[in-house]
Amino acid sequence: MKKVFLLLFAFVFITNSFFAQELALVVDNDEGGYINKSGELVIPTKYKKAQSFSEGYASVTEDGKSWGVINMKGEWVIQPEYDKIKDFNSGIVVALKDDRWRYIDISNKELKTPVSEKYFDFNDGVAFYKVNKKLGLIGTDGKVVLEPTYDVIKKFSNGHARVRNNEKWGLIDAKGKVVVKLDYDGIGDFNKVAIWAKKGEAFGVVSNGGFHENSDINKIDDFRYGGSLAYARKDKLWGFVNNKAEWVIQPKFKKVKAFKNGFAPVLDGKLWGYINEKGEMAIAAKYKDAEVFGDNGLAPVKESKLWGFIDTTGTMKIAEGYEITAKGFSMFSKNNIKGFHNGLARVSAKKKWGFINENGKVLGKWWEHIELFSK
User: Fold this and answer.
1) 168: how many CB neighbours lie within 10 A of its CB?
2) Which ranges of the chain have pLDDT less than 70?
3) In the 8-state DSSP scheme, what is residue 364?
4) Pair 226, 246: CB distance under 8 Å
5) pLDDT given for residue 17 in this prediction
6) Looking at the domain assignment, is residue 205 inside a domain?
7) pLDDT of residue 336
8) How many structural domains is the chain composed of?
């Protein structure tokens, strides 16, 4: 009995480990396949078009016409019988066949819904439901969560979505409950720290149930990366405000980017450097361009024509020699994170794309195109 239990445990562990892995879509000779984080090609490059993995599945076509769905072993779980299949989200995907869109699950069973107009992708367990120019929500069971109520519903982010009626904006959750009343002429994405908003001509921040106005501000960004500061503009200069719209770092920079891991890139004069959360210049402004720090403490910077990576002391850890902006991908590119993400950075050298680790070592080989790792 003990041996049976151990064998069962081992099987479950190995199975879970396999499906927990992340794969990246790569392209070679204009055909897509997938690599693992060891750089090994685990699903051959044989697809004319392909999508990144989402919830353990990827939509692909071998002939460029008929789409199906594969699992992370490269096995067909939905045979290539559709004209188009989008990305799985919340266990449901939108598929086109015989000039008719529909929702299907991974067993290829069609979901019955009241949808008669456009089929929207699922996101955070709900999909938009449109009737007579008004939008509501349906759930993964196909039932109505929110009757068509709003003129506009934006994509859900952090379990919430921006909504508009009669030119006024607010926020709802995935159950359709209003969490910020539709009192604003503009509003940012939901964030537990605070949400930027505009009321009339006044910009400010919504937090703790109230609107905090700052008459200095003429533009403001979202609170990002779980940080307590958002960048905002006064006249033509940028600084940072807290969740009460109070200036924590005075507006004195021509350009800025968000704080991440305690540092923010700023344009000081004609060059970029980094400030800390006290507004002190922590890394001297000597770069032509700079991006935010990754979780591993490395940030992409450009001193001349190409990008390298520095640490939080400003020491160059990976020499310049790369491009970092992914563009022109024929089959994909939905996610354009620059710099390190989960231990790897997507870079280009000599018109080929690959991943490098924190030591600058290339993962496997270089490819025509690559997407970020996903599962």
Assistant:
1) 16
2) 1-20, 327-335
3) S
4) no
5) 42
6) yes
7) 74
8) 1
H/E stretch holding 10 reads helix 2-20
The answer to whether residue 202 is domain-embedded is yes
Shortest CA distance to 242 belongs to which of 187, 294, 196, 200? 196
Map tokens 């009995």 to a residue.
1
Distances (CA, A) of 29 to 51, 127, 163, 249, 315: 17, 36, 44, 50, 38
Which structural domain range is residue 236 located in? 191-253
Query: Can you read off the two tokens belonging to residue 182?
Result: 């539709």
Assess contact for 265 and 249: CB atoms under 8 A. no
Burial of 290: CB neighbours in 10 Å, binned 0-12, 13-18, 19+: buried
Among 205, 125, 131, residue whose Cα is nearest residue 160: 125
Query: Token digits for 171?
Result: 């926020």
Report d(CA 254, CA 275) in Å as an integer. 14
- Is there a contact between 42 and 34 (Cβ–Cβ < 8 Å)? yes
The per-residue pLDDT for 337 is 86
Q: What is the pTM of this model?
A: 0.89
DSSP secondary structure string for all residues of 173-187: ETTS-EEEEEEESEE
The pair of three-digit structure tokens given for residue 369, joined into one six-digit string: 């195109």
Buried b (16+ CB within 10 A) or exposed e, 312-341: beeeebbeeebbbebeebebbbeeeebbbb
Gap between the terminal Cα atoms of the chain: 35
Name the amino acid, one letter, at 291. Answer: E
- Report pLDDT for 228: 96
Whether the Cβ atoms of residue 260 and residue 242 lie closer than 8 Å to each other: no
Q: Is residue 166 part of a domain?
A: no
DSSP 169: E
CA–CA distance, 364 with 36 (Å, rounded to integer): 10
Position 277 in a domain? no
